[in-house]
Design goal:
Length: 302
């Protein structure tokens, strides 16, 4: 079906690969948007934590009056959780992948699901910095492969659409429709670029933050205070990285290299070794659920 077009009405089942920070959010938004959604992960233990996040987000949406309790229950019913790859792939019409930011892992995942999914399935990757051309051939259907990169999904509801050279022409306009259906703001990346749009800008900020800390110019807290105080933001660069996940920050830094990357990797390693990956593990640069930067006197002593 690579020379044909899909329409939204053809999407009966959405498959999310990876139940981590972004995958669970994309899956929930898919179900909220009315799609029957399957969330696949190799680790069953991630499902319970993901379900708790879903409950918290849905509770907030109910409280804000955006959905009611009946809708919330129906949304949960539209989500299937599985560690069975064949069952996940069966009848899938649209796939979005959010597995570890590692080229080898992603290639293996796309080879596996390229063989398991129906021939018409549209494949999209949610990678933060890697290019779709890295994995398109591994999927076995490069013309039906495109980057569809989400941010926070609910608060930062932007999605990047980045085709590669052989992505079928109809895929981009279809993904615009899909983005609007998922309540996202589509941003078109005109040519393959590591970091897309926002992450290129964010990368410059985070790289500068690391440079300031690793060269002894300022502390983690003072870097964040400067950013928060000047831009009136709820968190600074290091708080942002805790929300992204320090293992993702490490992967991106390692893959991209650049000035100061060795210092940054060395700085991050003790956090990774200690399992301090950010909000998801309860501790990263700060401790959660009540990080220091949320204290009333973090910026100004009362």
């Amino acid at each position: 079906m690579d020379n044909q077009t899909l329409a939204l009405k053809d999407i009966k089942k959405v498959l999310i690969l990876g139940a981590g920070t972004l995958g669970l959010r994309v899956g929930l938004q898919s179900a909220i948007s009315g799609f029957n959604t399957t969330i696949y992960d190799i680790n069953k233990d991630t499902f319970e934590a993901a379900k708790q996040v879903h409950s918290k987000i849905l509770y907030g949406l109910v409280k804000e009056g955006k959905i009611d309790k009946k809708e919330s229950a129906a949304i949960i019913e539209r989500i299937t959780w599985t560690t069975d790859a064949a069952a996940a792939a069966k009848d899938a019409d649209f796939v979005n992948e959010s597995v570890t930011e590692n080229v080898g892992v992603k290639k293996a995942v796309w080879k596996q699901f390229g063989e398991l999914c129906p021939k018409h399935t549209l494949f999209t990757t949610n990678t933060s910095y890697m290019l779709p051309s890295y994995f398109a051939e591994d999927s076995g259907r490069p013309t039906l492969f495109c980057a569809f990169h989400f941010h926070d999904v609910f608060w930062a509801n932007v999605v990047d659409i980045m085709p590669h050279k052989t992505t079928a022409e109809w895929v981009t306009p279809f993904l615009y429709e899909m983005a609007y259906t998922l309540n996202q703001i589509p941003v078109f990346v005109q040519k393959e670029s590591n970091g897309y749009v926002f992450n290129n800008m964010l990368g410059a900020l985070l790289g500068s933050a690391f440079q300031l800390v690793t060269t002894g110019v300022a502390s983690i807290q003072d870097v964040d205070r400067s950013w928060m105080g000047n831009f009136k933001m709820p968190s600074g660069p290091f708080g942002i990285m805790d929300s992204i996940g320090l293992e993702t920050v490490h992967h991106v830094t390692k893959n991209n290299g650049g000035p100061g990357s060795e210092r940054t990797l060395a700085f991050l390693q003790p956090y990774l070794d200690g399992g301090k990956l950010g909000i998801k593990t309860g501790e990263g640069f700060y401790k959660y659920p009540n990080p220091e930067y949320q204290n009333v006197d973090f910026l100004i002593k009362k």
